[in-house]
Write a structure and sequence with these properties.
Length: about 240
C-alpha cells in the first residue's frame, strides 16, 4: 500500500536517498528543505515543503501541507541536522544551543506535529537519524554528539509512551558516509577515519536509506526502541 511519508532534510545527502527509497517503493513522499532550488526534488517524484525545523509554526504547516497532498503522515523520518564543530573552550553557547535546537528539539517538534494523525489512525512508523558519534563521542563535537545521543532517549521514551497505539520509534545511527560533507575532508583525515572502520570504507547514503526503509516496513512491525548502527563496525561495543 502507498503510504504518506515525510522526510525532514530530504533535499540532499542521506535524506534525499531515504526519500527516493520510499518513492521507489511506491510511497508518496514529501521532503522538507530550508532553501535552494527544488526542481530536482520534483523531478524525483517528491513533494518539496519549505520548512525551518527550528520554527514550530513552520513545522506544523509542513505537516499540514504533507497531509493535504498525501493524507496524514504515516511514516516520519527525522533526518534534518547541522554541525558547528568547535573545541569546548572555544564553543559558544549559541553554537551549542543552535545544534541541539535543530538536531534534537527539531526532531521533537516534527514528531509532535505528526503524532496526532498517527494516534488517530492507531498506527505509525517513526525513524530518527542519529549518528555513531552520539554513542562514541568525538573531540570538537560535544554539541553534535549530545544532540544525537538525545535522539536515542527521545525515541525510547516515545516507544514506551505510544507503543500501545501501534506506533514504533526507532533510531538509525550512521557512521561516516560518502556525502558532500565528508568529501571536503583532507586526504589525511579520510585515511584516519577509515583506519577506525573495520570494513575499511565509507558507507553510502543508499545503505543508510535501506536500514531506514526496513524499520518503516511491515517486516519490522515488532521492532521499537531499537538503535541500528550502519557504520561499518566503527561503533561496535557502544
Amino acid at each position: 500500500m502507498s503510504r504518506s511519508v515525510l522526510v525532514t532534510g530530504g533535499n540532499r545527502g542521506i535524506g534525499l536517498a531515504v526519500a527516493r527509497a520510499f518513492a521507489d517503493g511506491g510511497d508518496k513522499v514529501a521532503v522538507t528543505y530550508r532553501s535552494g532550488d527544488t526542481a530536482f526534488i520534483e523531478q524525483a517524484g517528491l513533494v518539496p515543503v519549505r520548512c525551518d525545523i527550528t520554527d514550530a509554526g513552520q513545522v506544523e504547516r509542513a505537516c499540514e501541507e504533507a497531509r493535504q497532498r498525501h493524507g496524514p503522515v504515516e511514516v516520519l523520518v527525522a533526518n534534518a541536522g547541522v554541525t558547528r564543530d568547535q573545541l569546548l573552550l572555544r564553543m559558544s553557547e549559541e553554537d551549542f544551543a543552535g545544534v541541539v535546537d535543530t538536531n534534537l528539539t527539531g526532531a521533537f517538534r516534527v514528531v509532535r506535529a505528526a503524532a496526532a494523525g498517527m494516534l488517530q489512525a492507531r498506527k505509525g512508523r517513526v525513524v530518527l537519524v542519529s549518528s555513531v558519534v552520539g554513542m562514541s563521542g568525538s573531540p570538537g563535537q560535544a554539541n553534535y554528539a549530545a544532540s544525537k545521543a538525545g535522539l536515542i532517549g527521545l525515541a525510547r521514551s516515545l516507544a514506551r509512551e505510544l507503543g500501545s497505539r501501534n506506533i514504533t520509534f526507532n533510531v538509525v545511527a550512521p557512521g561516516f558516509v560518502d556525502t558532500g560533507m565528508t568529501r571536503d575532508l583532507t586526504a589525511q583525515q579520510r585515511a584516519d577515519i577509515l583506519a577506525r572502520v573495520p570494513l575499511g570504507r565509507y558507507g553510502t547514503a543508499e545503505e543508510i536509506a535501506a536500514a531506514v526503509r526496513f524499520l518503516a516496513s511491515e517486516e519490522a512491525s515488532y521492532i521499537t526502541g531499537a538503535v541500528v548502527p550502519v557504520d561499518g563496525g566503527m561503533g561496535m561495543g557502544h
